[in-house]
Amino acid sequence: MNGVQQESKYQIEVVAQKHRHMSNWDMFATWIGANANNGTWYVGGVLAACGLLTALKVIIASSTLSYLCLSLVGFMGYKTGAATMSLIRGAFGIRGSYVPSFVNLTQYVGWTAVNTFIAATSVSYLLHDLVGWPVYGHPGGAKGIIIGIIVMSVLHLLSVSVGQRSVQMIERIGIILVILFVLWETVVVFKTVTIHDMLNWHAPVRFHMTAGAGMDTLAAFNLAWVTAGADFTRFTGKRSGATRMPFLGAFTGVFWFAFIGLAATISIAITAGTYDPNNSDPSTIASRLGLGVLALLVIVLTSMTANAVNLLAAGSALSNIFPKIRLRPALWAVTIIATLVTLIPLVMGSFLAAFTVFLDYIGMVLGPMISVMLVDYYWRHHQHYDVNELASSKGQYWYFHGFNLIALICWGLGVGLYIAIKHIAFVANVTGATFIDMILIGLIYMGLMRIFYPLPAK
C-alpha cells in the first residue's frame, strides 16, 4: 500500500500525511454505507418487538453513545496513521493485542456472513422470479441460497482484490443507489400504514423486547464499527473527516435503515395480522411490499457496501496477528473464511437463532475491550502514543513479555460483569448492560494501571 511505513518484527502500517486522500465526503459515504445495509435493516426489524416509540428511543440513545466512541477511535487513527488493532497494542501490549485482534477478526467475519446471507436470500428470491426456484424457507429453497452465497462471495473477492481503493469506489457509487432505494422504501411503507397505526401496535407478549434488551442488541451492532474506526480515518488528512464524518455517517445510516426496517416490519405485522421476527429480513419485506426485482438487486449492492468495510477490518486484524501476511492475501483469506461461516444458519436451521447467538457474543466482549483502549489513550497517555514503540519489543508497550495483564484481566472481568448485571431488573428493563459495563471497567482499569504501571511524573 502506498505511503505505508513498515516497522520491525512486530511491524505496523502507518499512513503518512501526504498519502491521505480520503475527503470528508468519502469518509461520510464510507460510514453511512457501512450502516445503510441489510444487517441494519434486519436489526431494525428485530427491534420492532420493543414497539415503535421505545425502539426509536433505543436507536437514538444507543447509537449516540456508540458513535461517540467511534469518533474517539477515529481521532486516534488520524493522529497516528495506524489501524485500530495496531493502536490497541498501547493498552493490551504488542503480543496482548493478538487477543482483541482475534475477536475483531471473528466479529467482522461474522458481520460479513450476516450481510452475505441476507443478500443471498435476495438472490434466492431473484432466482424464484427468474427461473421458478423455491425461495429460502420453503422446501428446496436451500439450492437458491447456496447459489446466492457463492455469487456474493465471488463479488466480494473481486472487490477486495484492489484493497482500500475498492472501498472508496463501491461506497461512492453505492451510496447514491442506496439513498434512492431507501427513499422509495419509505414512501411504499407509509402508503401502506400510518404513523398512528404503528404507534398503537404492540408485539405479542411472547416476542416483547424490553428497552434494556434493545439497548444491548443495538450496542452490539454499533460498537462493532468502533473497532474499525482508525482503519479508515488514517486515510484522511482532516480532523473533521476523522471525527465528525464517521459519527454523522454512521448515525445517519443506522437511524435511517433501522427505522425503515422497524417501520416495514411493523407495517407487515399490521396488514398481515401476525408478527414473526424471522420475517424481518429485507428480501422477505421487499417481496411482501411488492417492490420487485430492482429492490432485490439493491439489497445485493448494500451487502457489498457494508462488506467492503467488514472485510478490510477483518483483513487488518488478521495482519496484526500474523504480521508477515500482507493486506491483500489477508483480505482473500477472510473472504473465504466468511463464505464458510455464512453456511452456519443453514446448519442451525434458523438465521434469527444464529444472529442472536452472534449478537450475544460480540455484545459482551466488545464493550470492555473498547473501554480499556479509550481510557488508556485519552486518560492514561493524554492522546499520545509513540508509534515507533508500538512495533518495538523493547519499548513501553511491551509490558510483561508483550502482554499487559491488567488490560486482559479487566477485559475478562468486563465480560463477567456484563453477564452479571444483565440480570438486574433496572438494567434489563431500561438501560441495558453494555454502557454501564464500559464505565465500570474503564474506572477499574485506570485504578489498577496507576498501581501497577504508574507513569513517570512530567
Automatic annotation (TrEMBL):
Where in or outside the cell it occurs: the entry states:
Membrane
Q: How does it sit in the membrane?
A: Multi-pass membrane protein
Entry keyword annotation includes Transmembrane: yes
* InterPro entries with a match to the protein in the record: CodB, Pur-cyt_permease, Pur-cyt_permease_Fcy2/21/22
Asked if the keyword ATP-binding belongs to this entry, the reply reads: no
Which controlled-vocabulary keywords does the entry list? Membrane, Transmembrane, Transmembrane helix, Transport
Q: Which GO terms describe its cellular component?
A: plasma membrane
| GO MF terms held by the record | cytosine transmembrane transporter activity
Matching CDD domains, A to Z?
A: SLC-NCS1sbd_CobB-like
Name the principal localization, coarsely classed: membrane
Transmembrane portions of the chain: 41-59, 65-88, 108-128, 140-161, 173-193, 205-226, 247-270, 290-318, 330-355, 361-379, 399-421, 433-453
> What PANTHER family does the database record attribute to this sequence?
CYTOSINE PERMEASE (PTHR30569:SF0), CYTOSINE TRANSPORTER CODB (PTHR30569)
- Give the family, as the similarity comment puts it: Belongs to the purine-cytosine permease (2.A.39) family.
Question: What name has this protein been given in UniProt?
Answer: Purine-cytosine transport protein
What is the originating organism of this protein?
Answer: Lactiplantibacillus xiangfangensis
